[in-house]
Amino acid sequence: MRKQLVGVTALAATALLVTGCASNAAEAPKSGTVADAKPTTEQIKALFADWNAALATGDAQKVADHYAPNAVLLPTVSNQVRSTRAEIVDYFEHFLQNKPSGTILDSHVAVLNADDAIDAGTYRFALTKDGKPTTVDARYTFVYEKIDGKWLIVNHHSSAMPETV
């Protein structure tokens, strides 16, 4: 009888274990779903085009909307590190007076996971300074994070090229 009781208990425990695993498997997110799909390199590169389009509006608030609340901006034409929305808006209020338009010259995208990516390379800005057209070549790094379903810049570093091209 004791052997039968041990056998029945083991069978019941196995059934509970299998049932428990099956229900947990049904509740766990499945790998490969749209929610955890990594973005493509092209999708990350397109984020620059969206940001550049915001520059074209001339509205510093719209540009700042591309940055996460905790973003850090190390801008091209300012020595001040910008780490609040107000500081980022302030930078773009001045920068946008030059009517900037950026063109990527060289891009290297690293998709880290479904929610994080880096785009680093070089870009050229066409600007109007004192009524005269000019260009500035710079190196850049954009670190993006998907926050509440929207890709935002969490870190943006831009520095003018040290050598003339």
Would you give an account of this structure?
The protein has 165 residues and is α+β, with helices and mostly antiparallel strands. It contains 4 helices and 5 strands; from the N terminus they run αααβαββββ. The chain has a 5-stranded mixed sheet with strand order 1-5-4-3-2, covered by helices on one side. It is globular and about 50 Å long. The N terminus is likely disordered.
Main features:
165 residues; five-stranded mixed beta sheet; globular; disordered N terminus
Quick take:
This protein has helices spanning 2-27, 41-56, 60-64, 85-95, and strands at residues 67-74, 101-113, 116-129, 132-147, 150-160.
Which percent range describes the beta-strand content? 35-45%
| Main pleated sheet | 5 strands, mixed
- N to C succession of SSEs: HHHEHEEEE
The structure class reads alpha+beta
Helix content: 25-40%
Number of helices: 4
> What is the distance, rounded to the nearest whole angstrom, between the alpha carbons of the first and last residues?
90 Å
**Main sheet strand line-up:** 1-5-4-3-2
Overall outline: globular
Low-pLDDT stretches: 1-31
Mean pLDDT: 84
Radius of gyration: 25 Å
Counting DSSP E segments of at least 2 residues, the number of strands comes to 5
